[in-house]
Design a protein that fits this description.
Elements (H helix, E strand, L loop, with lengths): L2 H50 L2 H6 L4 H8 L6
Length: about 80
C-alpha cells in the first residue's frame, strides 16, 4: 500500500473514531437525562401518594399531615 493511501486510510479511521466517540458521548448524555427524569417522576409519584394517605396511615409511618403536605407540594425539581 502506498504511503498516501496509508495516510488516507488512517485519517478516515481517525474521523470515524471521532464520530464514534461523539455518538457515544451523546448517548451517555441522553441516557443520563432519561435516568434523571425517571428519578424525578418516581419521587413526584411518591410525594403525590403521601397526599392521598389518610391521617391514620400517615401516623402508622410516623409522618404528620403537615409533613406530608409539605413534602407532597415540593417542586418537581427538588
Amino acid at each position: 500500500m502506498s504511503t498516501m493511501r496509508t495516510m488516507s486510510v488512517a485519517a478516515s479511521e481517525a474521523v470515524g473514531d471521532q464520530r464514534s466517540g461523539f455518538v457515544t458521548r451523546i448517548v451517555v448524555v441522553i441516557t443520563s437525562a432519561i435516568l434523571w427524569l425517571e428519578d424525578r417522576l418516581a419521587k413526584r409519584r411518591s410525594r403525590l401518594a403521601l397526599l392521598e394517605l389518610t391521617d391514620d396511615q400517615l401516623k402508622d409511618i410516623g409522618i404528620s399531615r403537615a409533613d406530608a403536605e409539605r413534602e407532597g407540594l415540593r417542586s418537581f425539581l427538588d
